[in-house]
Structure prediction request, 149 residues.
Amino acid sequence: MAGDNARPRLDWGHLALVVLIAGVVGLYLHDAIQASPTTDNLILILPAALLALGLCALIAIGILRGRAARGDDAPLGRAPALMGLFALYIITLPVVGFDVGSAVFVAAALLVEGERRPVQLLVVPAVFAVLATLSFRALVPYPIPTLLL
Prediction:
């Protein structure tokens, strides 16, 4: 009966990896700010670093509460298909444009991940492509190749 009220064991390896990733992101952000604290330098670095640090914090909280997510034990899963899709996306961006390329990539990635609802396969990629294209167009000081927008 001693095992009934035992606390769950912490996954120290997982926690150490998350802390290491957060540390590297923090050091990279600090170095970028020290090198040049201008908007042009930090326009992509700062939001990405803050997102990464926030995700690290959420994962660490989950680990400390004993509710860390466990992935499947498949050695490769769908990762090779997604990596191939991403490579194709990058290669075809100059031809099909950022807007259409992003929509097609997100739709294909959803299919690879098992999404089969037609509304999700049409609406999510379209909304993402429009928001991402308009956001990058507003933030980046050079023209982005697009097909429709």
